C-alpha cells in the first residue's frame, strides 16, 4: 500500500518488472521556502520504505526502472537561487546492491526524458540543447555519452524489446 502523508501529494511513480517495488515521487513542503514544494523519491516494498532522494532545494523526479529490474534512474533538479541557475543530474541506483551513482553530472545537460534500455547498463536520454532536444546513449556504469541524433527535437523515446531500435517523435 502506497499513500502520501497528510502534507504530501503524489507526483509520479514507476514499478519494477516483478511488481514488488514501487518508486514513488511525492511533493512535500520545502523547509527552506515554506511557500514552495520539493519532490521526494522513495522506494516502497513489502518490507517498508527507503527514501532515495530528499533534500531541501532540490527535486528528485521522473523515476524509471530498467526493464530488467536492475536500475532505478531519476532526475535530480537543483532549484535555482539568486546567482545560480537550475541544474539537472541523472542519477542511478542499483536495485540489487543499493549503491547510487551520478550518471550525468550537474549542469552538463537539462534532462527532458529518460528511457532505460531493455538489457544492459544503458539509458537513452533526451536533453535540452540550444533549441534542439537530441537523444543521447548514456552508460549507467561509466557515464560514457554518445549522441544519437544531430538535429531536431525528440520526445517519447521507446526502445524495441530486443534493443535493436529506438522510436521517438521528432519535431
Topology:
Elements: E1 9-15, E2 22-30, E3 33-45, E4 48-53, E5 58-65, E6 71-78, E7 87-94, E8 100-104, E9 110-116, E10 122-128, E11 135-139, E12 145-147, E13 154-159, E14 166-170
Antiparallel strand pairs: 1-2, 2-3, 3-4, 5-6, 6-7, 7-8, 9-10, 10-11, 11-12, 13-14
Describe the protein in words.
The chain has 171 residues and is mainly β. 0% of the residues lie in helices and 57% in strands. The chain contains no helices and 14 strands. It has strands spanning 9-15, 22-30, 33-45, 48-53, 58-65, 71-78, 87-94, 100-104, 110-116, 122-128, 135-139, 145-147, 154-159, 166-170. The strands form four sheets. Strands 1-2-3-4 form a four-stranded antiparallel β-sheet, with no helix packed on it. Strands 5-6-7-8 form a four-stranded antiparallel β-sheet, with no helix packed on it. It is globular and about 45 Å long. The model has no long low-confidence stretch (mean pLDDT 92).
Q: What is the CA-atom radius of gyration, in angstroms?
A: 16 Å
Calculate the mean pLDDT score and round it.
92
The helix content, as a percent range, equals under 10%
Shape: globular
Main pleated sheet: 4 strands, antiparallel
> What string gives the helices and strands in order?
EEEEEEEEEEEEEE
Strands ordered across the widest β-sheet: 1-2-3-4
Ends distance? 40 Å
Total of DSSP H or I helical runs spanning 4+ residues: 0
Q: Which class of secondary structure composition applies to the elements? A: mainly beta
Poorly predicted runs of 5 or more residues? none
- Count all strands and give the number: 14
Q: What proportion strand?
A: over 45%
